[in-house]
Amino acid sequence: MPRNGLRLLLSALALSSTMIAAPTQAQEAKQRWEQLCQIRKDKLDLILPEAMRENGIDMWLVASREGHDDPNAAMLGGGYVGDIGYYIFTDRGGGRIERAALGIGGAAFDQCPLYDIKGAPSGLRAFVEARAPKRIGINVATEIGTADGLSHSLHEHLRNTLGPELAARLVSAEKLVSDVRSRHTATEIAAFARAGEYARTITERALSNEVIRPGHTTTGDVAWWMMERLYENGLGNSFGIPSIYVLGPGERGPVSGDHVIQPGDLITMDWGVNYLLAYTDMKRMAYVLKPGENGPPAGVQRAFDKALEIRRMITESVRPGVTAGEALAAAKQRVAATPGLAMGRYDDPSSDMKVSDVVIGSHAVGDWGHGSGPSMADFNPLRMTYTLRPGNFLSIELFLYTPVPEWGPRKIKIPLEDNGMVTARGLEWLAPPASRVLLVK
User: Fold this and answer.
1) 3-state helix/strand/coil string of 188-249
2) Residue 32 domain-assigned?
């Protein structure tokens, strides 16, 4: 065959391959879009009515501005806002909440039909007056960022538009937003479980010889390899670049930086994956074997096993019907009653080498890396007052500071974190949790 003919044939084959591959890629995009649309429908059909009625809010008014979306806009359908747009939910009785979108549109928004009424934002006051709500929830909050999306200027614009009589009925929707975001339907649970599988699979590949070549690979190399896998799979993340650093025996070095991983290093990773509206938060540990070793030092293994026991104390304290703070108090009580353990402070262990210090920070997760719902963590005081319910997601997170004799007179940190869901039975994992120290040869 002439050279030019061969060239044309190869070009045609390449084009054919592209054309064949394209429908598969489009199919994945469409499948994700359809799943996202169903998640939104289920959230508004099944979760929103009970949350509004429990919180005594008969109208929830969410305002967005072009370039400044409310944190809940993606959950509520997204869409294009030309200047100001409103998602408005009114409890008019019956089993369904009336849904209106004023000033919001676009092809993607229209292809997932969620709203009963569409109109111009200029009709806001007349719309609200016609429904005469007693309590209008708006997204201003004292603690939860996802419930605090209303900017100062948009708040003022809203009050002026509604007029003094209706503006006097505005109340914070902080608890409502927390309830809507932290109670999950089956479609959301499926998406979160898939995000968890992406997270642990990428992590466990990263902390292996597939990626790490001891003496050459840096913690930054590992982090960017993980970021590349997110890019390939069309995923986002919860906290930016993964946090990868050395726990011992030497210096920690910069997080996800130029520290070269060496034989004998115990390394940890902390990150989260975003798939659709689901966000994970998890940790894994790996030990880099020295020549002749086939496992971590005995002291490291004992420390890891002790951390697993503490994790069990936490999960056994989780049950529906109690506040997150009560569940945390029960877990702390079990830790304090265990010989050799004591509650401690994050990254500030006691000097008593006969005592292992424990820190618990089992926060809400799922709708964000640090989620909006009930939280078993002292750094979320308001969310500790919220009651645990079936369908809430929790990131079971703990840190153990304990001596490892092989590494001298100091305590090392053993972090554990995995994601589960509150059920009638307690806490159930949504992806297999960390059960071993990963090994790198």
Assistant:
1) HHHHHHHHHHHHHHHHHHHCCCCCCCCCCCEHHHHHHHHHHHHHHHCCEECCCCCEEEEEEC
2) no
pLDDT at 24: 61
Cα–Cα distance for residue pair 172/210, rounded to 1 Å:
50
Domain assignment of residue 12, yes or no: no
54/40 Cα distance (integer angstroms): 20
Residue 391 · residue 407 · CB < 8 Å: no
Please report where in the chains the tokens 């964000």 appear, as a residue.
368
Distances (CA, A) of 187 to 32, 35, 125: 12, 7, 35
CA atoms of 204 and 267, how far apart (whole Å)? 12
CA distance 221 to 261: 10
Using one digit for the tens of pLDDT, what is the confidence trace for 361-405?
999 999 999 999 999 999 999 999 999 999 999 999 999 999 999
Measured distance CA(121)–CA(79) in Å, rounded: 14
- Tokens representing 429 are 């994992």
Measured from the Cβ of residue 314, the count of other Cβ atoms closer than 10 Å reads 25
Whether residues 317 and 432 share a domain: the answer is: yes
Closest CA to 234 of 73, 37, 31: 31
* Domain co-membership, 51 together with 146: yes
Q: Work out the pLDDT band at 251, boundaries 50, 70, 90.
A: confident
Q: Distances from the Cα of 26 to the Cαs of 12, 29, 274, in angstroms?
A: 21, 5, 20
Instruction: Output the pTM of the full model.
Output: 0.91
Q: Are 388 and 294 in contact (CB under 8 A)?
A: no
CATH code, domain carrying 75: 3.40.350.10
Q: Could you identify the residue written with the tokens 């906290």?
A: 239
Answer for the pair 134, 59: CB distance below 8 angstroms, yes or no: no
Residue 414: inside a domain, yes or no?
A: yes
Cα angle: 394, vertex 181, 77; to 5 degrees: 140
